[in-house]
Amino acid sequence: MPVSASAIYFLNLRGDVLINRLYRDDVGGNMVDAFRTHIMQTKELGTCPVRQIGGCSFFYMRVSSNANVACAFKFVVEAVHLFKSYFGGSFDEDAIRNNFVLIYELLDEIMDFGYPQNLSPEILKLYITQEGVRSPFSSKPSDKPVPNATLQVTGAVGWRREGLVYKKNEVFLDIVESVNLLMSSKGSVLRCDVTGKVLMKCFLSGMPDLKLGLNDKIGLEKESQIKSRPMKSGKTIELDDVTFHQCVNLTRFNSEKTVSFVPPDGEFELMKYRITEGVNLPFRVLPTIKELGRTRMEVNVKVKSVFGAKMFALGVVIKIPVPKQTAKTSFQVTSGKAKYNPAIDCLVWKIRKFPGQTEPTLSAEVELISTMTEKKSWNRPPIQMEFQVPMFTASGLRVRFLKVWEKSGYNTVEWVRYITKAGSYEIRC
């Protein structure tokens, strides 16, 4: 069932109630005492809808029935964000005491008989225009035109205000993916997944309607309805943990398999996802480490870029671990530069620009200090990689089309970019 809060409390670190708002009569007077005992003293903040604010106070919502806990936590987080937007970014005990009248007014708007309502700061500021007592270090409020507040609150696009006008209408779309890999010394993949985000910046006039089609691999487009250049079909991509921004029309997505939305103004995250199958690894690392007695080591590492020859990676860093008793190193690299970093006990190999379909190698001789006290064998930490590959996606996700429609019929410039970077990219040696 949805969240139906019985009461909301604001407490300081001593447990004193600063402000409270009762929505139902099913809350006993001992609720705050129980909160002090079980939460504030044990610091188990993950057990109830509560959030510590800036280390100075607690925001506690009491839910008596078996409600949606995730929704309750979401309400608490969004409410704190709303209060901070009114008070210049600060929301501590002083801010609560100085703005209790405004807080009561906001509480009446964001919750009706215990049920959450609109918590968007942009919308609430249209008709609750009172300014809070702001910290002297907070930023000045921006002077924005006030559109029709009633339309914004009751309309279907409360995240976007009316009357926006731009001389140049542009849309920027970025698909940013992070590759996480753990590979064994024998070359078998122990763990591999991709976490991705679709980030957008929209500078569009009026109330535009956007349609985004992704490639055939996940079947999110419908060619019969929207003209687009043909693209080769591939294997099916299974997207896990997909979440959309509230602006996305989920009904249309389920029926037409297109991401349709009226975008917020400026920068926002359209969707995020995770992929665990069919990942295209951008790099293959082939290490060979030989321990020659107790005083010498030979290190040979080959790194192969698997992406296309016309693409390249930037800022590639390969960290190859060596024992702590390393005394001297010598290198030979076919590309980039390498050096020994004693602070992290690694050979650090840097390649500023790494072309696709190439195989640079590193060969190193490592001299060790022989010690009588150190009898434990070296446990060989994994090799780590850092990189960024523009115009490449490890998941295979691509944009087929991005169409903008607005009743005035203005022209729009669309920009699409892909970036794949390393998350936890490790190879055991």
UniProtKB/TrEMBL annotation:
<keyword id="KW-0813">Transport</keyword>
<dbReference type="InterPro" id="IPR043512">
    <property type="entry name" value="Mu2_C"/>
</dbReference>
<dbReference type="InterPro" id="IPR001392">
    <property type="entry name" value="Clathrin_mu"/>
</dbReference>
<dbReference type="GO" id="GO:0006897">
    <property type="term" value="P:endocytosis"/>
</dbReference>
<comment type="similarity">
    <text>Belongs to the adaptor complexes medium subunit family.</text>
</comment>
<dbReference type="InterPro" id="IPR018240">
    <property type="entry name" value="Clathrin_mu_CS"/>
</dbReference>
<feature type="domain" description="MHD">
    <location>
        <begin position="168"/>
        <end position="428"/>
    </location>
</feature>
<keyword id="KW-0472">Membrane</keyword>
<dbReference type="GO" id="GO:0005886">
    <property type="term" value="C:plasma membrane"/>
</dbReference>
<dbReference type="InterPro" id="IPR011012">
    <property type="entry name" value="Longin-like_dom_sf"/>
</dbReference>
<dbReference type="GO" id="GO:0006886">
    <property type="term" value="P:intracellular protein transport"/>
</dbReference>
<dbReference type="InterPro" id="IPR050431">
    <property type="entry name" value="Adaptor_comp_med_subunit"/>
</dbReference>
<protein>
    <submittedName>
        <fullName>Membrane traffic protein</fullName>
    </submittedName>
</protein>
<dbReference type="Pfam" id="PF00928">
    <property type="entry name" value="Adap_comp_sub"/>
</dbReference>
<dbReference type="InterPro" id="IPR028565">
    <property type="entry name" value="MHD"/>
</dbReference>
<keyword id="KW-0168">Coated pit</keyword>
<dbReference type="GO" id="GO:0005905">
    <property type="term" value="C:clathrin-coated pit"/>
</dbReference>
<keyword id="KW-0254">Endocytosis</keyword>
<keyword id="KW-1003">Cell membrane</keyword>
<dbReference type="GO" id="GO:0030131">
    <property type="term" value="C:clathrin adaptor complex"/>
</dbReference>
<dbReference type="InterPro" id="IPR036168">
    <property type="entry name" value="AP2_Mu_C_sf"/>
</dbReference>
<keyword id="KW-0653">Protein transport</keyword>
<dbReference type="InterPro" id="IPR043532">
    <property type="entry name" value="AP2_Mu_N"/>
</dbReference>
